[in-house]
């Protein structure tokens, strides 16, 4: 008897789908109102039932917006969309719909949208006398013994009328006859049956049989009738009637008893012999429905099932069985069949309305679906419990009666779960319980709630200088957990300046790929590193963004040759001799091995190995006389100069860095070896002439200038010498006057350094060390290039 078992999938279904589309902005009103109408049965299609919209309080204006709909399983009624009246959709037969029950009504829901509300509409259907009484058999036969005393009663067939109340069967009539009358009796269940009453004794010899017409009447106006033929045969005497062992048989059966099984067996006995003792069983007083359900074996008295029982349609039957002997005597007994409920109906879930999409920021408690559940079984088999399968963020709320709504239990996150199949399960209270389920498919719509995230916390890259413009430096990458446009990441460069110029003139970021390109060739000597921000922004509205710091280190290359600062380049002295560097140095002939003659000073604009310089002597007039410190650049005497060494020595020093490949520069020094000031001046003169000649100047002018300068220095120096002597004498004299702590000049340091600022201005044009000889004493006047300090050293031999 169960039909709607198994799963019910949500599908497009007329009004339900329509309702689903608008449910998002729905309030649920928990209380439902009821409307009740009464109509007569058999009304034609289109007959007015009542003004439903008006009765629900809807005005004609708001009717189109509110979308009044009916939710019926069978379309008995329709509602007119324009005026909101309820009409009959198909002819209604009360007997077909409700059978024998005294009242008959149809209930259904009227759904109103914006906001959603449900009304319960009940239409009561009243009976019309549209059925005539009808006998189950149209011929009855009675055997009446001639000895039967007047007043004896005989059961006659029962007639049925499908109508109820006054339209139902009211009485029976028999055609005029002196011997017989008919009397109407009412049985316990209220049905009326006819009994034949013998009014006068019969005489088989006078009249062997009678043919009469039995008429059944109902109470309608006008009344309807049904007839049956009644034939009465008068028989010979028969003393003993059959007798049933029990006056009443009661049978209790579960509704799922298989068809064909024997329910019970009735048994009667008759004391007569032969034909008068032969018993035949038959149903007396049986309804049409019962006669289709039960079968009585006329010989054995076994009652068996012709078709399956259904507790939900009928829970008890009352039958009357009669045992007839061959002599016309009979006895009746009652059989009461009670049907018990079996859990044979699956709970049914119907989805009245459901969303298919929900935004991930929908607040907790948003209604997702409206369900109706029911079970045709009676308690406790029909008590339904509903639940939602699995750990999903949804819960069930009981709305009213058998309605439930599915609501969100918390906020959803599309980045975690983008789609839900919510299984709602309904189980009844039977043992074992039956259950069914419905699946709601729900897609979660994206909201831009995630900012792009860079793959790395910070980026750094190293780029060799002198790169090609447009070279790829590195690629940054950011991902966004959102979907579609909300996850479309675009990159751009953050604001910034490098050496006063906008950062965007140095590098650019490709918006789509995040590739960072150098826009120009970078120079380590100008910019050591670039610090910048790259911003990633998604396509949402409003957009979300994040940034990452990028550090680009520029790596040095050996692209600068060493630059000689001292000796000054020849080009600086005169018109360029090109790349070579030269100068004139003075060295006393009494120099000891290792005495400092000059220092070559060079710098390199590169860094590290590329700027690490080494000095080598490439060429010398007298090989072995001088050596150059590999890293200091100091030119020192390797041995004491000998008399045979030429007075003028020329040295070429190569300065090299350690880059790959190495770059170099050369410096040329002229060294003058002299014994005395006079020789020095002569040699210097010729050396300067040579230098001037190398510079392309007339030799005479330079010589004159030099002789003048040296003579001036010598005079000045002599004046200082005298002054110093005077000072020393004065001090010695004072020490002689005061008692000395120890020896006369013992405490005086071996050498004195006296700074003479006044000399500086005079000596500024010099860039030479000048060594002079004064008899056995050596004094050393030096001016350190660049420091602007002049010092005078006096050494005692
Ligand atoms: C939901 O059900 C549909 C069809 O039944 C299936 O294609 C889909 O993969 C299911 N989704 C989830 C999240 O289980
Ligand atoms: C980068 O983001 C931080 C916060 O994460 C913010 O303070 C800073 O201003 C941003 N920088 C740029 C250049 O947008």
From TrEMBL:
GO terms for biological process: homophilic cell adhesion via plasma membrane adhesion molecules. It is found in: Membrane. GO terms for molecular function: calcium ion binding. Its main location: membrane. It holds the Pfam family Cadherin. Signal peptide: none annotated. One of its GO terms (cellular component) is plasma membrane. The keyword Calcium applies. It comes from the Eukaryota. InterPro entries: Cadherin-like_dom (IPR002126), Cadherin-like_sf (IPR015919), Cadherin_C (IPR032455), Cadherin_CS (IPR020894), Cadherin_N (IPR013164), Protocadherin/Cadherin-CA (IPR050174). The keyword Repeat applies. Keywords: Calcium, Cell adhesion, Glycoprotein, Membrane, Repeat, Signal, Transmembrane, Transmembrane helix. It is a single-pass membrane protein. Residues 34-135, 136-244, 245-349, 357-454, 455-564, 591-675 form the Cadherin domain. The chain crosses the membrane at residues 705-727. This is Cadherin domain-containing protein.
